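1st attempt posting a full record on here, be nice pls
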Amino acid sequence: MKKLCLLFILLCSSWLVMAQKKERHKKDSLCIYQKVDTNYIASYKDLLNVKLFAVIRTNSFKIKDQDSLTSIEYTINTRLNMGIGGSFKGIGFDIEYSPPGINNDDSIYGKSSQFAVSTSANGRRFLYDVYYRQYQGFRTTAKYYIPGDTLYDYSRRSDIRNYNGGFTLTYIFNNKRFSSSAPYSLSQKQLKSAGSLLLGTYSFIYGIIADTIVYPDSVYRKFRKELQFSSAASYTFGISCGYTYTLVFGKKKNWFVNIATLPGISYQQFTSVNAFDKSSYSNNSLAFSLQSRFSIGYNRKNYFIGIYWIGNNFILGDDKQASINYKYGTFKFYYGHRFDIRKLLKKKM
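the predicted structure (as tokens):
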């Protein structure tokens, strides 16, 4: 009798488990139960995303003498690029070009060139970015005034170049209800508002190289001898912790706004070479960073539109000598459509 009762209990338990699985499968139309909550996230990875976009990338660095508080900032001559992109099954591509008649201010600000390779992903649990960027051709950010009643125009330095290579890796704690790809790669949709704590690590090398002293001839005496360098580099490793949140609103919950902030602290080794006597200087110290994201848009199953900004701000150097504030960012406007390839193929057949 006990064996029959035990058998009956096991059969009932098995039936309840099967019933729960069937119910879960009904609710989970994407068949990814226990990976994401489909009440909060919808996936469009099986659809072909095709988009048109316009993008502007920024890159600048500011050098500051910590004793005299004298500073100077350089930036590239930014360009507006147009492009077309697409993604399918989590794999995407972008093709860009410079439209004629728009980026024609080289005679004012000088010409900047760039080379960059990278791979990145907005995954369910992790955000990662592996990159190498190299820029050449900088100018001062604004006209500057020097005591002595002299007004100087933008200082253009075609010989200055900087490079930056490294990686960032960020873990998303609320990865079942918050989608990191919905506000940026648009391969998913955030159905309900949600946020998540972020924890990350990063490491990179950053360098500045010039043929002569990095400052204009008219101002280099404002910086003490130890800061009159022609090249400098920093090796950095750090950790970061922050938060991100996506607000979903509108009558049909198609509008969204995402904000993310990720401050960090790092250990870094700073080195520089004097432009005149070629003496070297090095120092180990703490450094700080701030990674930030902002996105706003409209996301439906068949089309989407929006803008986003991704910025990175790193403070390098040391308290006793100098600081270098290195910043780069990407501003993008996009408009796209999604296509169900399987339906299109069935219609043709």
